């Protein structure tokens, strides 16, 4: 009989780049360099400083885990403040803006990766967040 998967409650932060395909079509090299700088100089340090952990990077996005929704929200605010400031002096067609979704939910642990509705809902929320904004799930 298969062992039941390990589950836990986690605050998941999902982030992606607005208009990634358009940005890459216009300037692959410049977009990639700007994204790498944003991830390494803003996103990763903000996640770490708010006691989170990035568990997945994919193209134009990432997923991070936090033990606390407050930490996830504070990290999102720090990320968006810095990212929006960086974008403010760029032409609209070169500005890298992020959308962030945050959800507190049950997740399945598989090594260092996380799966399940807790992650899926955060990703869906990120899709509805406005450019430079954050969408957070609410409990009912």
What does this structure look like?
There is one protein chain. By secondary structure, the protein is an alpha+beta fold. It has a single domain, classed as Nucleotide cyclase, GGDEF domain (Alpha-Beta Plaits, 2-Layer Sandwich). The protein has four helices and six strands; from the N terminus they run E-H-H-E-E-H-E-E-H-E. Strands 1, 2, 3, 4, 5 and 6 form a six-stranded mixed sheet that branches. A hairpin with a 2-residue loop joins strand 4 (98-110) and strand 5. Helix 2 packs antiparallel against helix 3 (69-88). The longest helix is centred in the N-terminal third of the chain and has 22 residues, at 28-49. The protein starts with 5 loop residues before the first strand and ends with a strand.
Report the principal-axis shape: globular
**Category from helices, strands and their pairing:** alpha+beta
Based on DSSP secondary structure assignment, what is the total number of beta strands? 6
CATH architecture classification name: 2-Layer Sandwich
The largest sheet, given as strand count, sense and whether it forms a barrel, is: 6 strands, mixed
Distance between the termini: 36 Å
Q: What is the oligomer described by this structure?
A: single chain
Mean pLDDT: 94
Uncertain residue segments: none
Strand content: 25-35%
Could you tell me the CATH topology label.
Alpha-Beta Plaits
Helicity level: 40-55%
Q: What is the name of the CATH class? A: Alpha Beta
- Name the CATH homologous superfamily: Nucleotide cyclase, GGDEF domain
> What is the rounded Rg?
15 Å
Q: What order do the helices and strands follow?
A: EHHEEHEEHE
The overall number of domains is 1
